[in-house]
Amino acid sequence: MTALVSDIGGTNTRLGLVEDGQLVASSLDSFANDDFDSYEAVVETYLDRLGQRRLDACCIALAAAPTPDGAQLTNRDWTIARTGLQALTGAPFIGFLNDFEALGYSLIAPERLETQPVLASAMPPPLRATRMVLGAGTGFNAAACHWPASGGAPHVAAAECGHTTLAIEGEEECALQAALAAGRGRASVERALSGNGLREIYAFVCGRAGRPCRAQTSAEIAAAAVAGSDEQAVAAAHLFLRLLGRVAGDLALTLLPHGGIYLYGGVCRALAPLIVTTDTFRDAFRAKGRMGPFMADFDAHLLLDDRIALIGCVEWLRIAAVSRACPR
Amino acid sequence: MTALVSDIGGTNTRLGLVEDGQLVASSLDSFANDDFDSYEAVVETYLDRLGQRRLDACCIALAAAPTPDGAQLTNRDWTIARTGLQALTGAPFIGFLNDFEALGYSLIAPERLETQPVLASAMPPPLRATRMVLGAGTGFNAAACHWPASGGAPHVAAAECGHTTLAIEGEEECALQAALAAGRGRASVERALSGNGLREIYAFVCGRAGRPCRAQTSAEIAAAAVAGSDEQAVAAAHLFLRLLGRVAGDLALTLLPHGGIYLYGGVCRALAPLIVTTDTFRDAFRAKGRMGPFMADFDAHLLLDDRIALIGCVEWLRIAAVSRACPR
């Protein structure tokens, strides 16, 4: 059986072929979305390049909420119709996954992923225990990978965590919430825990310090914070990590990922040195009152793998093939 | 096959027998915990009364985190050992469930439960869609009942939501958070959304109004709020429902219970008239910015059934029997 797996990002679309349940490394390729006017055109170019005509199945991960008929990209005017993709590839079996759903499926076998430890617990994670991925990048979201108590294949539970209400504590954060909510009526988690969020937190910190904002992009702010070259960038990064640790801790108490927590996304990766070498994230994660010792039993890792969404699609196809789940 | 199901509450222990997968109505009984010095003594009295000697299985729901060997009650010095219960009942198969885990399993067939609609969505809930229970009573917690995408038996994901950080918005709630956190360092969801929480919110409201606290217990405060006989009780109840709606909305965005949300617990039941007849809970639940229309698609119901934890134990036994899961 030959299947296509694909990860449609904001800028690039990554594709790969799956033979006998394994991702074929030599088939991995990436295309700039701006060079194409439809997703089908990307797939056609990719398959032509490989001389691959017919497929048995496709699994596509994308930053959107798929419907039974296909998906409409949120950040680009691409509409992907299941029927059109079936006509193009001949694949009778096509699956669409939300991007974090795909990340969740990749956690079925995290030992295959490139990771870096962030929080270490005293005990090794139990078998078949829930794993959680959360990510801060363009936006914020999370997903949980559960192993049903009755046995059977893992189940990934999707979420829309970025839209939950940002939990703040104390005077400074009340002022931050007011700044983030200005003109919007509220401050969601994503409003703070994203690239734009880091920029707004930096502007808030600079404003309170009466200093000009020297860094412009979230990448510049993160770099200046890691380098320690900009006092306000350092303060903004630590405020960001305090909020990230608190939100991660709340998600851990809600999803109980005793199998491990995996951090994903551009902002998490950019701030990784501060997550690992300072106590800010860890202390905020564990600051749950008498549950502190309970929180100390969670492992956390940073996901460094760029193929992770594709690997999640491979896992989803394997489960779908085994269970003959209906196309979705 | 004859099984015992049991729900150990803070005051009473409810028990029932299961024959051929059905709860036997005539076998339902309840005992005051104070009349016994151990859970085994309750079971012995119950089985003697029924003239039932041998059991094939037991499932016990209790407000505690069970271990493989048994469970230690949090609110009373009862330790329940799997081995002791096996010796007493002859049951080779014994399961311990956290109380909200049991509530989660009862949602496999909510049409069998006594409920009252709270929020109605335009669309009927899809089949095999996640259901969620959340409850405010002595404490606060939630659980999700998932139907694995690959098919198979439902999976209930337990949680420790009561310990998450209370998400507050605006000046008044910042002051409330400071009051709730006084002497404790932080304010958890449970600190506000529980019987004691309603009392503390009422004291906060009375303090700001410069009025004495006339109602004493959370039941008195809820009754006065529903009757409209105490202005501060009404204000406290609406503040409580605003926080409950927000937390319920955040849990809905995290667990995506498109199959329905079920409210449980003494405080939810006591404030039910205000949940149903005023907009406070609904508006707070849906106040998620551009996700407002998304939030309007969730159904919510109030759980009125006292047998719900027992019914959850019956469902768990059915799944465990089908899947031959290891005793837990």
Describe the structure in brief.
2 copies of one chain form a homodimer. In chain A, 40% of the residues lie in helices and 21% in strands. Chain A is an alpha/beta fold and 328 residues long.
What features would you describe in this structure?
2 copies of one chain form a homodimer. The first copy, chain A, folds into 2 domains: 2-104 and 307-322, ATPase, nucleotide binding domain (Nucleotidyltransferase, domain 5), CATH 3.30.420.40; 115-304, Hexokinase, domain 1. Chain A is built from 13 helices and 14 strands. Chain A has helices at residues 39-50, 82-89, 99-106, 170-181, 189-192, 195-209, 218-227, 231-255, 266-270, 272-277, 280-286, 292-295, 308-323, and strands spanning 2-8, 12-19, 22-23, 29-32, 57-62, 70-72, 79-81, 93-98, 115-119, 131-136, 140-146, 155-157, 260-264, 300-303. In chain A, a hairpin with a 2-residue loop joins strand 2 (12-19) and strand 3 (22-23). The longest helix of chain A has 25 residues, at 231-255. The first copy, chain A, starts with a strand and ends in a 5-residue tail after the last helix. In chain A, 54% of the residues are buried. The interface between A and B is large, with 54 and 54 residues. Chains A, B: This is Glucokinase. Chains A, B: It comes from Bosea vestrisii. Chains A, B: Keywords: Kinase, Transferase. Chains A, B: Pfam families: Glucokinase (PF02685).
